[in-house]
Amino acid sequence: MNVIEINNLTKTYGKSRGIIDVSFNVEEGEVFGFIGPNGAGKSTTIRTLLSLIYPTAGSAKIFGADCIKNAPEIAKEVGYLPSEVFYYDKMKVIDVLKYSASFYKKDCSKRIEDLAEIMDLDLKKRVDDLSFGNKKKVGIVQALLHEPRLIILDEPTSGLDPLMQQKFFDLLEEENKKGATIFMSSHVLSEVQRMCTRVAIIKEGRIIKLETMSNLTENNYKKFKLEINSGIDKNHFQINGVSNLELKGNIISFLYKGNVNTILKRITEIDLKNVWIEEPSLEEIFMHYYEKEA
Hints:
globular, six-stranded mixed sheet
């Protein structure tokens, strides 16, 4: 069963681009990634899905019900974490969360305490005394306090330190094991790789690829940066699988996709001072999708 069904969803803002003909489904129990660079249309899609803004054309369904017509009923089963969270400054954290819980007609007090403990959140503090990261934790607890069947996360880890990110992902894995479907937008590839089974890639408001994570990682690129002791001929690395080759002074950098032994053999043939091998950014990884699309 599909928990989310999006059909030819379009949202335009006057002459500005929003999203164009976006279509994909998210299956029950799936952890689905929605990825692309900032400004690609991720938040617009999510806000339209949640009926916070209305589409110009197309339709979307959650739990088989129309997102616009059935928004209040759908909201009871959805937990949403926006990319930026804003609250009434003078309220205490516990009062914000109790107020949120009051909309769900069930006792969430034990759940709030448990989540606050996991996320190391002080419930007695006032909102205006919180750092950006702690406000984000309030948003996380708020999104999960009613044990929603569908969790929608928009750039969820911005503002969280690495330890909290780890705790948050552990928490999401637990919710998913209990049966929750998770839909998360991100421009951070590593978190999408860790969590998601399938991804949709959005570029300039259009979906350019729907892919399983296993296919995506098989097609993955590595980013190489080499510091050379003596001069080098750029042609040394002109082999299959190398792209974005740049030479600046004694630093050569490139992306590589293919058998890692092949490229390492080439690297061992030169006089190296230092070497860096890392995950490329999302934009770099999907360069080939973007170029193909163009």
